[in-house]
Structures are given as structure tokens and as C-alpha cells.
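Q: Could you predict the 3D structure of Hydroxyacylglutathione hydrolase?
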Amino acid sequence: MNVYQLPLGPLQTNCYIVSNDVKEAVIFDPGEEADIIFNVIEENKLKPLAILLTHAHFDHIGAVDEVRDEYNIPVYIHKYEADWLTDGQKNGSASFLRNQTIFAREADHVIEKEGKMEFGQFTFSVFETPGHSPGSISFYNKELRTVFSGDALFQRSIGRTDLTGGDHELLIKSIKSKLLSLPDDVVVCSGHGPTTTIGEEKKHNPFF
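A: Sure. Here are the predicted C-alpha cells for Hydroxyacylglutathione hydrolase:
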């Protein structure tokens, strides 16, 4: 499998495209610059199956509708942020952006609880990792030994908790119970910045 990391938009929010041997692909957090996403998909002759959102802050959802419409694929989000896609106050764009509010249409599927999700030949374990936002979730692929953590866990840092529904203590609990329980060699693909590993964060992250 391949993982394409695409830092997009002014906040350099990481969109990830994951592909397998039969060219199926899933797309995480298409935040902006849909053309860059399209180029990677077309250049590698990929067949997108779904858009998976780790959470619904504006910098993670700006290109959702463009990508969804281009490939006619469904969007998945956690139930606690299902209404954030259409609400500029909740997704933060009304507060952080000048003269612009970012929206996306409602998700096609709402994730109700933790568990396994399958898309073509992909299998992901969904972990609820709230704290940065109420509906933050992480997606773990055991075969790839990679977890897509959104803005919960970063290299030597964690997500901010001063936005709508943020909770510092809950975020620390989420990371310790869900993410740091994964094997040390698991790669962490964060919503911003470089990738890291679970083992590195156990050793060097100052929040733990």
C-alpha cells in the first residue's frame, strides 16, 4: 500500500490518500486545493472509494464537496460533528476566516461508534479520540501499521483544546487509552506536520 501526504491550504493541513495494490483509494481530510488531490489520483490511476473525516474543522473539509462530486464517493464523519459540515460557527470558519465561511453538504454516512470499517480491500479500526473536538476519530490500518490521528496527536505535541467542544483532559485520556496502546512501530499520520511513530511519542512527547 501507498500513503500520499498532501499538506494543503494556508494551514498546511495534511490530506492523505491511501492506495492498495488494486489501485483502490481512500481519502482522509480533503481540506483545500482539490486540484492537487485530483492530480495525485489521476497520475496514479487510482479509484477512490470514500472520504473519511477525522473531524470537521474548516481546514479539514474545504474540498470535501469538490472531491465527493468529482468521483461520486461517500463522505463519512462521526455523529458528534455531523452538523458541523454545514455550520460555519461550529467548524470554526466563521471565527477564523475573514469574509469567508466554509461549508460542505451533509455527510453520506454518520459513524455511530467504534469498530471496523471496510472499503473495498481496506479495513480500518475506528477509535473515538475526542478532546480536540467532540467528534474526533482516528483510523487505524493494521496491515499498513498506520493510524490517521487527525488533530489529536502530533509529532511531540497534541491538538489544541481551546476551540468549540475542546477538552484537554479528555484529549490526554483519548490519546493514552486509544493511540498509545498501539504497537510502538505504528506510524502516526497527523493532521499537520510530519509523521511520527507511537514509540517516538511515548519517549519524547512532553505531554505524556
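Q: Anything worth pointing out?
A: The radius of gyration is 16 Å.
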